[in-house]
Amino acid sequence: MSADSSHEVGERIAARRRARRLTQTGLAAASHVSYATVRAVERGARRPSDEVLEAIAATLEVDATQLRTGYVGTERRVHRALPELSAVIAGYDIAQGPSTRTPDELAAAIKTAVGWRLAAQYGRIAAGIPGLLADAIRYTHTACGAEQQAAARMLAAAARTADAIAFKYGARDLSARLIDLMRWAADRAADPLVQAATAYVRTEVFFAARAHAVGLVALEQAIEAAPAASSRSEAAARGALHMRAAVIAGRDGNVNSADLHLKCARQLGGQVAREGIYLGTAFGPDSVRIHEVSVAVSLGRDHVDRALRVATAWKPPADLPAERRSGFYIELARAQDWSGLQADAFESLKVARVAAPQHTREHPWAREVASSLRRFHRSDAESLSHFAHWIGAV
After folding, report:
1. Distance of CA 203 to the CA centre of its chain
2. Are residues 230 and 292 in the same domain?
3. 229-233, long-range: CB within 8 Å, 24+ apart, which pairs?
4. What pLDDT, on a 0 to 100 scale, did the predictor assign at position 70?
5. Overall domain count for the chain
6. Could you tell me if residue 81 is left (phi over 0), alpha (psi between -120 and 50 degrees) or otherwise beta?
7. Residue ending a domain, choose from 71, 100, 130
8. pTM across the whole model
Protein backbone atom coordinates (compact mmCIF):
# COMPACT_ATOMS: atom_id res chain seq x y z
CA MET A 1 0.00 0.00 0.00
CA SER A 2 1.32 3.42 -0.96
CA ALA A 3 2.03 5.87 1.84
CA ASP A 4 0.88 8.72 -0.41
CA SER A 5 -2.19 10.58 0.81
CA SER A 6 -5.17 11.13 -1.48
CA HIS A 7 -4.25 14.82 -1.60
CA GLU A 8 -0.70 14.04 -2.79
CA VAL A 9 -1.99 11.77 -5.56
CA GLY A 10 -4.59 14.35 -6.58
CA GLU A 11 -2.01 17.15 -6.70
CA ARG A 12 0.28 15.09 -8.94
CA ILE A 13 -2.57 14.30 -11.32
CA ALA A 14 -3.62 17.95 -11.46
CA ALA A 15 -0.04 19.10 -12.10
CA ARG A 16 0.43 16.56 -14.90
CA ARG A 17 -2.92 17.49 -16.40
CA ARG A 18 -2.09 21.20 -16.43
CA ALA A 19 1.34 20.48 -17.94
CA ARG A 20 -0.44 18.75 -20.83
CA ARG A 21 -2.87 21.70 -21.09
CA LEU A 22 -5.90 19.53 -20.44
CA THR A 23 -9.01 20.64 -18.60
CA GLN A 24 -10.61 18.31 -16.07
CA THR A 25 -13.36 17.74 -18.61
CA GLY A 26 -10.79 16.89 -21.28
CA LEU A 27 -8.98 14.45 -18.98
CA ALA A 28 -12.25 12.79 -18.06
CA ALA A 29 -13.27 12.35 -21.70
CA ALA A 30 -9.87 11.07 -22.87
CA SER A 31 -9.49 8.58 -20.02
CA HIS A 32 -13.15 7.42 -20.04
CA VAL A 33 -13.52 8.42 -16.38
CA SER A 34 -16.41 10.54 -15.18
CA TYR A 35 -15.84 14.27 -14.68
CA ALA A 36 -17.08 13.95 -11.08
CA THR A 37 -14.43 11.30 -10.38
CA VAL A 38 -11.60 13.35 -11.88
CA ARG A 39 -12.69 16.41 -9.89
CA ALA A 40 -12.95 14.46 -6.63
CA VAL A 41 -9.59 12.74 -7.16
CA GLU A 42 -7.78 16.01 -7.88
CA ARG A 43 -9.28 17.60 -4.74
CA GLY A 44 -8.07 14.64 -2.70
CA ALA A 45 -11.64 13.82 -1.72
CA ARG A 46 -11.44 10.40 -3.35
CA ARG A 47 -8.63 7.88 -3.69
CA PRO A 48 -8.55 6.59 -7.30
CA SER A 49 -9.04 2.88 -7.85
CA ASP A 50 -6.35 0.98 -9.74
CA GLU A 51 -8.46 1.08 -12.91
CA VAL A 52 -9.07 4.83 -12.66
CA LEU A 53 -5.42 5.55 -11.84
CA GLU A 54 -4.20 3.54 -14.85
CA ALA A 55 -6.72 5.18 -17.18
CA ILE A 56 -5.64 8.66 -16.06
CA ALA A 57 -1.93 7.75 -16.21
CA ALA A 58 -2.32 6.42 -19.76
CA THR A 59 -4.01 9.65 -20.87
CA LEU A 60 -1.32 11.76 -19.21
CA GLU A 61 1.37 9.50 -20.79
CA VAL A 62 3.05 8.70 -17.48
CA ASP A 63 3.49 5.51 -15.52
CA ALA A 64 1.03 5.06 -12.68
CA THR A 65 3.99 4.83 -10.26
CA GLN A 66 4.67 8.51 -11.00
CA LEU A 67 1.23 9.34 -9.64
CA ARG A 68 1.15 6.90 -6.72
CA THR A 69 4.44 5.77 -5.16
CA GLY A 70 5.02 2.02 -5.22
CA TYR A 71 1.97 1.33 -7.37
CA VAL A 72 1.78 -2.37 -8.32
CA GLY A 73 -1.81 -2.49 -9.51
CA THR A 74 -0.92 -3.50 -13.07
CA GLU A 75 0.97 -6.57 -11.90
CA ARG A 76 -1.86 -7.53 -9.54
CA ARG A 77 -4.48 -7.20 -12.23
CA VAL A 78 -2.48 -9.15 -14.78
CA HIS A 79 -1.66 -12.00 -12.42
CA ARG A 80 -5.28 -12.12 -11.30
CA ALA A 81 -6.39 -12.42 -14.94
CA LEU A 82 -4.00 -15.24 -15.92
CA PRO A 83 -5.85 -18.10 -14.13
CA GLU A 84 -9.14 -16.78 -15.54
CA LEU A 85 -7.67 -16.85 -19.04
CA SER A 86 -6.43 -20.40 -18.51
CA ALA A 87 -9.93 -21.49 -17.49
CA VAL A 88 -11.55 -19.70 -20.43
CA ILE A 89 -9.43 -21.47 -23.04
CA ALA A 90 -9.39 -24.91 -21.39
CA GLY A 91 -12.28 -26.03 -23.61
CA TYR A 92 -12.09 -23.59 -26.48
CA ASP A 93 -13.03 -26.33 -28.96
CA ILE A 94 -16.28 -27.06 -27.10
CA ALA A 95 -19.42 -25.03 -27.80
CA GLN A 96 -20.60 -23.27 -24.62
CA GLY A 97 -23.63 -21.24 -25.66
CA PRO A 98 -24.09 -17.78 -27.17
CA SER A 99 -21.95 -14.71 -26.63
CA THR A 100 -23.15 -12.13 -24.12
CA ARG A 101 -22.33 -9.40 -26.68
CA THR A 102 -23.75 -8.72 -30.11
CA PRO A 103 -21.31 -9.15 -33.03
CA ASP A 104 -20.95 -5.37 -33.35
CA GLU A 105 -20.32 -4.97 -29.61
CA LEU A 106 -17.76 -7.76 -29.71
CA ALA A 107 -15.97 -6.27 -32.73
CA ALA A 108 -15.81 -2.85 -31.07
CA ALA A 109 -14.50 -4.27 -27.78
CA ILE A 110 -11.81 -6.30 -29.53
CA LYS A 111 -10.74 -3.27 -31.58
CA THR A 112 -10.35 -1.29 -28.35
CA ALA A 113 -8.35 -4.11 -26.72
CA VAL A 114 -6.04 -4.36 -29.74
CA GLY A 115 -5.38 -0.63 -29.38
CA TRP A 116 -4.46 -1.18 -25.75
CA ARG A 117 -2.06 -3.95 -26.80
CA LEU A 118 -0.30 -1.69 -29.27
CA ALA A 119 -0.09 1.01 -26.59
CA ALA A 120 1.23 -1.51 -24.00
CA GLN A 121 -1.69 -0.87 -21.64
CA TYR A 122 -1.51 -4.28 -19.98
CA GLY A 123 -3.56 -3.37 -16.92
CA ARG A 124 -6.47 -2.30 -19.09
CA ILE A 125 -6.22 -5.52 -21.13
CA ALA A 126 -6.18 -7.68 -18.00
CA ALA A 127 -9.34 -6.07 -16.62
CA GLY A 128 -11.55 -7.30 -19.45
CA ILE A 129 -9.81 -9.85 -21.61
CA PRO A 130 -11.07 -13.06 -19.95
CA GLY A 131 -14.71 -12.19 -20.58
CA LEU A 132 -13.93 -10.79 -24.02
CA LEU A 133 -12.08 -13.93 -25.05
CA ALA A 134 -14.88 -16.13 -23.72
CA ASP A 135 -17.41 -14.24 -25.82
CA ALA A 136 -15.20 -14.49 -28.92
CA ILE A 137 -14.96 -18.27 -28.46
CA ARG A 138 -18.74 -18.57 -28.03
CA TYR A 139 -19.41 -16.45 -31.09
CA THR A 140 -17.06 -18.52 -33.25
CA HIS A 141 -18.97 -21.68 -32.30
CA THR A 142 -22.43 -20.23 -32.92
CA ALA A 143 -21.77 -18.22 -36.10
CA CYS A 144 -22.37 -19.83 -39.49
CA GLY A 145 -20.87 -19.51 -42.97
CA ALA A 146 -19.09 -16.27 -43.78
CA GLU A 147 -20.11 -14.92 -40.37
CA GLN A 148 -18.10 -17.71 -38.73
CA GLN A 149 -15.02 -16.65 -40.68
CA ALA A 150 -15.44 -13.10 -39.42
CA ALA A 151 -15.95 -14.43 -35.89
CA ALA A 152 -12.78 -16.51 -36.16
CA ARG A 153 -10.81 -13.45 -37.25
CA MET A 154 -12.05 -11.62 -34.16
CA LEU A 155 -11.15 -14.60 -31.98
CA ALA A 156 -7.60 -14.64 -33.36
CA ALA A 157 -7.26 -10.94 -32.52
CA ALA A 158 -8.63 -11.47 -29.00
CA ALA A 159 -6.32 -14.44 -28.36
CA ARG A 160 -3.34 -12.40 -29.54
CA THR A 161 -4.29 -9.60 -27.17
CA ALA A 162 -4.54 -12.05 -24.28
CA ASP A 163 -1.18 -13.51 -25.25
CA ALA A 164 0.39 -10.07 -24.92
CA ILE A 165 -0.05 -10.13 -21.15
CA ALA A 166 0.66 -13.86 -20.78
CA PHE A 167 3.97 -13.61 -22.65
CA LYS A 168 5.11 -10.30 -21.16
CA TYR A 169 4.42 -11.47 -17.60
CA GLY A 170 6.21 -14.80 -17.95
CA ALA A 171 3.24 -17.21 -18.26
CA ARG A 172 4.95 -19.11 -21.07
CA ASP A 173 2.74 -22.22 -21.00
CA LEU A 174 -0.40 -20.11 -21.12
CA SER A 175 1.11 -18.05 -23.92
CA ALA A 176 1.76 -21.20 -25.97
CA ARG A 177 -1.83 -22.35 -25.41
CA LEU A 178 -3.18 -18.97 -26.52
CA ILE A 179 -1.10 -19.22 -29.67
CA ASP A 180 -2.61 -22.68 -30.27
CA LEU A 181 -6.01 -21.02 -29.95
CA MET A 182 -4.92 -18.42 -32.50
CA ARG A 183 -3.94 -21.18 -34.90
CA TRP A 184 -7.30 -22.93 -34.35
CA ALA A 185 -9.11 -19.67 -35.07
CA ALA A 186 -6.94 -18.93 -38.12
CA ASP A 187 -7.88 -22.30 -39.64
CA ARG A 188 -11.56 -21.41 -39.26
CA ALA A 189 -11.06 -17.92 -40.63
CA ALA A 190 -9.72 -19.41 -43.88
CA ASP A 191 -7.78 -16.18 -44.35
CA PRO A 192 -4.10 -16.42 -45.37
CA LEU A 193 -3.39 -13.03 -43.80
CA VAL A 194 -4.66 -14.28 -40.42
CA GLN A 195 -2.47 -17.35 -40.91
CA ALA A 196 0.52 -15.08 -41.53
CA ALA A 197 -0.23 -12.99 -38.44
CA THR A 198 -0.50 -16.16 -36.37
CA ALA A 199 2.88 -17.39 -37.64
CA TYR A 200 4.35 -14.02 -36.68
CA VAL A 201 3.07 -14.35 -33.10
CA ARG A 202 3.99 -18.04 -32.87
CA THR A 203 7.65 -17.01 -33.02
CA GLU A 204 7.34 -16.13 -29.32
CA VAL A 205 7.33 -19.87 -28.58
CA PHE A 206 10.68 -20.26 -30.34
CA PHE A 207 12.12 -17.17 -28.66
CA ALA A 208 11.08 -18.46 -25.24
CA ALA A 209 12.60 -21.91 -25.90
CA ARG A 210 15.71 -20.40 -27.55
CA ALA A 211 14.89 -22.68 -30.49
CA HIS A 212 16.02 -20.06 -32.98
CA ALA A 213 17.01 -22.31 -35.87
CA VAL A 214 13.68 -24.14 -35.99
CA GLY A 215 11.86 -20.85 -35.46
CA LEU A 216 13.57 -19.48 -38.55
CA VAL A 217 12.46 -22.54 -40.54
CA ALA A 218 8.88 -22.06 -39.33
CA LEU A 219 8.89 -18.40 -40.41
CA GLU A 220 10.39 -19.18 -43.79
CA GLN A 221 7.65 -21.77 -44.35
CA ALA A 222 5.08 -19.14 -43.37
CA ILE A 223 6.60 -16.69 -45.87
CA GLU A 224 6.33 -19.31 -48.62
CA ALA A 225 2.67 -19.93 -47.72
CA ALA A 226 1.77 -16.22 -47.52
CA PRO A 227 -0.01 -14.64 -50.48
CA ALA A 228 1.96 -12.71 -53.06
CA ALA A 229 2.43 -9.03 -52.23
CA SER A 230 -0.17 -7.75 -54.68
CA SER A 231 -1.88 -5.41 -52.20
CA ARG A 232 -0.72 -3.24 -49.31
CA SER A 233 -2.12 -5.68 -46.73
CA GLU A 234 -0.43 -8.66 -48.40
CA ALA A 235 2.88 -6.81 -48.67
CA ALA A 236 2.63 -5.87 -44.99
CA ALA A 237 1.92 -9.48 -43.98
CA ARG A 238 4.97 -10.75 -45.86
CA GLY A 239 7.11 -7.85 -44.67
CA ALA A 240 6.25 -8.48 -41.02
CA LEU A 241 7.24 -12.14 -41.39
CA HIS A 242 10.57 -11.12 -42.95
CA MET A 243 11.20 -8.67 -40.06
CA ARG A 244 10.55 -11.41 -37.54
CA ALA A 245 12.69 -13.88 -39.49
CA ALA A 246 15.57 -11.39 -39.54
CA VAL A 247 15.47 -11.07 -35.74
CA ILE A 248 15.33 -14.79 -35.04
CA ALA A 249 18.12 -15.39 -37.59
CA GLY A 250 20.14 -12.80 -35.65
CA ARG A 251 19.48 -14.65 -32.39
CA ASP A 252 20.73 -17.79 -34.16
CA GLY A 253 23.91 -15.98 -35.22
CA ASN A 254 23.01 -16.39 -38.89
CA VAL A 255 24.24 -13.07 -40.30
CA ASN A 256 23.58 -13.85 -43.98
CA SER A 257 20.01 -14.97 -43.35
CA ALA A 258 19.33 -12.00 -41.08
CA ASP A 259 20.58 -9.57 -43.72
CA LEU A 260 18.61 -11.28 -46.50
CA HIS A 261 15.35 -11.11 -44.56
CA LEU A 262 16.01 -7.49 -43.61
CA LYS A 263 16.56 -6.67 -47.28
CA CYS A 264 13.24 -8.29 -48.19
CA ALA A 265 11.47 -6.45 -45.35
CA ARG A 266 12.99 -3.18 -46.53
CA GLN A 267 11.74 -3.76 -50.08
CA LEU A 268 8.23 -4.58 -48.86
CA GLY A 269 8.31 -1.58 -46.54
CA GLY A 270 9.01 0.57 -49.58
CA GLN A 271 6.12 -1.08 -51.40
CA VAL A 272 3.75 -0.41 -48.51
CA ALA A 273 5.20 3.13 -48.47
CA ARG A 274 3.58 4.31 -45.25
CA GLU A 275 3.48 2.93 -41.74
CA GLY A 276 0.24 1.33 -40.63
CA ILE A 277 -1.41 -1.39 -38.55
CA TYR A 278 -2.21 -4.48 -40.58
CA LEU A 279 -4.20 -7.20 -38.80
CA GLY A 280 -2.82 -6.00 -35.49
CA THR A 281 0.84 -5.74 -36.57
CA ALA A 282 2.64 -2.47 -37.22
CA PHE A 283 4.51 -2.49 -40.51
CA GLY A 284 6.12 0.04 -42.81
CA PRO A 285 9.49 1.75 -43.34
CA ASP A 286 9.70 2.88 -39.69
CA SER A 287 9.08 -0.61 -38.31
CA VAL A 288 11.77 -1.97 -40.61
CA ARG A 289 14.29 0.57 -39.25
CA ILE A 290 13.41 -0.47 -35.71
CA HIS A 291 14.04 -4.09 -36.64
CA GLU A 292 17.42 -3.14 -38.10
CA VAL A 293 18.39 -2.15 -34.55
CA SER A 294 16.80 -5.31 -33.15
CA VAL A 295 18.74 -7.51 -35.58
CA ALA A 296 22.02 -5.79 -34.79
CA VAL A 297 21.50 -6.30 -31.05
CA SER A 298 20.38 -9.90 -31.61
CA LEU A 299 23.62 -10.61 -33.48
CA GLY A 300 25.60 -9.55 -30.40
CA ARG A 301 28.25 -7.11 -29.28
CA ASP A 302 30.30 -7.30 -32.47
CA HIS A 303 27.42 -5.74 -34.42
CA VAL A 304 26.39 -2.87 -32.15
CA ASP A 305 27.79 -0.27 -34.53
CA ARG A 306 24.94 -1.14 -36.90
CA ALA A 307 22.41 -0.30 -34.21
CA LEU A 308 24.15 2.96 -33.30
CA ARG A 309 24.30 4.07 -36.95
CA VAL A 310 20.54 3.67 -37.32
CA ALA A 311 19.89 5.60 -34.09
CA THR A 312 22.25 8.41 -35.11
CA ALA A 313 20.39 9.05 -38.34
CA TRP A 314 16.80 8.35 -37.29
CA LYS A 315 14.40 8.27 -34.34
CA PRO A 316 10.95 6.63 -34.17
CA PRO A 317 8.15 9.11 -34.88
CA ALA A 318 5.65 9.78 -32.11
CA ASP A 319 2.76 8.26 -34.03
CA LEU A 320 4.27 4.76 -34.01
CA PRO A 321 2.64 2.35 -31.52
CA ALA A 322 4.02 2.94 -28.04
CA GLU A 323 5.19 -0.64 -27.54
CA ARG A 324 7.24 -0.53 -30.75
CA ARG A 325 8.84 2.81 -29.84
CA SER A 326 9.65 1.54 -26.36
CA GLY A 327 11.22 -1.61 -27.81
CA PHE A 328 13.47 0.47 -30.05
CA TYR A 329 14.89 2.45 -27.12
CA ILE A 330 15.33 -0.64 -24.94
CA GLU A 331 17.36 -2.38 -27.62
CA LEU A 332 19.28 0.80 -28.34
CA ALA A 333 20.07 1.06 -24.61
CA ARG A 334 21.54 -2.44 -24.73
CA ALA A 335 23.76 -1.50 -27.68
CA GLN A 336 24.84 1.71 -25.94
CA ASP A 337 25.64 -0.14 -22.72
CA TRP A 338 27.77 -2.64 -24.64
CA SER A 339 29.57 0.27 -26.34
CA GLY A 340 30.46 1.94 -23.06
CA LEU A 341 27.91 4.73 -23.58
CA GLN A 342 26.27 4.31 -20.19
CA ALA A 343 24.85 7.82 -19.90
CA ASP A 344 23.23 7.44 -23.33
CA ALA A 345 21.90 4.02 -22.36
CA PHE A 346 20.18 5.45 -19.28
CA GLU A 347 18.64 8.23 -21.36
CA SER A 348 17.31 5.61 -23.80
CA LEU A 349 15.75 3.63 -20.96
CA LYS A 350 14.04 6.77 -19.69
CA VAL A 351 12.64 7.51 -23.16
CA ALA A 352 11.40 3.89 -23.36
CA ARG A 353 9.68 4.35 -20.00
CA VAL A 354 7.90 7.50 -21.14
CA ALA A 355 6.77 5.78 -24.35
CA ALA A 356 5.40 2.61 -22.73
CA PRO A 357 6.08 2.26 -19.00
CA GLN A 358 4.38 -1.11 -18.54
CA HIS A 359 6.26 -2.60 -21.48
CA THR A 360 9.59 -1.20 -20.27
CA ARG A 361 9.06 -2.42 -16.71
CA GLU A 362 8.41 -6.00 -17.86
CA HIS A 363 11.12 -6.17 -20.53
CA PRO A 364 14.00 -8.44 -19.43
CA TRP A 365 16.57 -6.50 -21.45
CA ALA A 366 15.52 -3.20 -19.87
CA ARG A 367 15.98 -4.79 -16.46
CA GLU A 368 19.34 -6.24 -17.51
CA VAL A 369 20.64 -2.89 -18.75
CA ALA A 370 19.38 -1.07 -15.66
CA SER A 371 21.14 -3.60 -13.44
CA SER A 372 24.38 -3.21 -15.41
CA LEU A 373 24.20 0.59 -15.26
CA ARG A 374 23.58 0.54 -11.52
CA ARG A 375 26.74 -1.49 -10.99
CA PHE A 376 29.06 0.48 -13.22
CA HIS A 377 27.60 3.93 -13.95
CA ARG A 378 28.04 6.36 -11.07
CA SER A 379 26.86 9.66 -12.50
CA ASP A 380 23.23 10.53 -11.78
CA ALA A 381 23.34 7.74 -9.20
CA GLU A 382 20.22 8.76 -7.30
CA SER A 383 18.04 8.93 -10.41
CA LEU A 384 19.45 5.63 -11.66
CA SER A 385 18.81 4.00 -8.31
CA HIS A 386 15.17 5.11 -8.42
CA PHE A 387 14.83 3.73 -11.93
CA ALA A 388 16.45 0.41 -10.96
CA HIS A 389 14.03 0.02 -8.05
CA TRP A 390 11.09 0.85 -10.31
CA ILE A 391 12.06 -1.72 -12.93
CA GLY A 392 12.97 -4.42 -10.41
CA ALA A 393 16.70 -4.52 -11.19
CA VAL A 394 17.67 -4.62 -7.50
Report:
1. 15
2. yes
3. 229/268, 229/271, 232/271, 232/272, 232/273, 232/276, 232/278, 233/193, 233/278, 233/279
4. 73
5. 4
6. alpha
7. 71
8. 0.87
pLDDT at 343: 92
Task: Return the pLDDT at 3.
Answer: 63
Residues 100, 42, single domain; the answer is no
Give the structural domain span for 127.
Answer: 73-188
Give the whole-angstrom CA distance, residue 67 versus residue 364.
24
Same domain, 264 and 224: yes
Residues 117 and 59 in one domain: no
Task: Answer yes or no: do 44 and 60 share one domain.
Answer: yes
Q: Which residue stretches of the chain have pLDDT < 70?
A: 1-3, 377-381, 394
DSSP codes, 85-151: HHHHHTTTTS-----SS-HHHHHHHHHHHHHHHHTT-HHHHHHHHHHHHHHHHHHHHH--HHHHHHH
Question: Between helices 73-89 and 145-168, what is the axis angle to 10°?
Answer: 140
CA distance 228 to 196: 12
